[in-house]
Amino acid sequence: MSRPGLPLFWDGYPIDWGRHWRSFRTSLSFHVDDFLACHECGSLTPTLHKVGVFFSKGKRLRHSPLGRHKARPRRLFASRCPDCLHTTVLDWRGQGWTLGPEDYGDRGSRAPEVPETAQVEQAALF
After folding, report:
1. Are 10 and 52 a contacting pair, CB within 8 Å?
2. What pLDDT digit, counting tens, does each position of 10-58 carry?
3. Is 4 within the bounds of a domain?
């Protein structure tokens, strides 16, 4: 089972994941049941971790006559099971995703598009 490193883009912004995966080996797996087990395969092998950085456009600058946006660094934290390659990503706000095959394409990972009918239904709830 082969899978590329990580998505090249996050919501359209190029992302730098660095070069190497890191593993933090501890004796924790000997002290707990399966709390740290992979949710896909149940492996207790320590997960691999990477931090990715990308720059997204933020709020408009207050005194910018041209309406420029300043780039804000954003960090993503990836965890991967070394046995089954199940990969999850946590963003700077604490929101998490499980990466699927569609996230490894040329466009990278993007937020799922919500159909217009679902948007209208959600608006009716408020």
Report:
1. yes
2. 888 899 998 888 887 666 556 655 566 888 998 888 889 999 998 877 5
3. no
- Structural domain boundaries enclosing 98: 9-125
pLDDT, tens only, 61-118: 455 555 555 667 889 999 999 999 999 999 888 888 899 988 888 888 876 665 555 4
Residue 3 lies in a domain: no
pLDDT, residue 4, reads 62
Distances (CA, A) of 4 to 7, 64, 70, 82, 102: 8, 41, 31, 13, 12
Judge whether 2 lies within some domain.
no
- Extract the runs of DSSP E, i.e. beta strands, from 1-126: 9-10, 13-14, 22-23, 48-60, 69-80, 87-91, 96-98
pTM of the predicted protein model: 0.69
**In whole angstroms, what is the distance from residue 108 CA to residue 8 CA?**
5
Count of structural domains within the chain? 1
User: Residue 121 phi/psi, 5° resolution?
Assistant: -65, -40
- Domain membership of residue 16 (yes or no) is yes
Q: How far is CA 100 from CA 23, 60, 89, in A?
A: 22, 34, 11
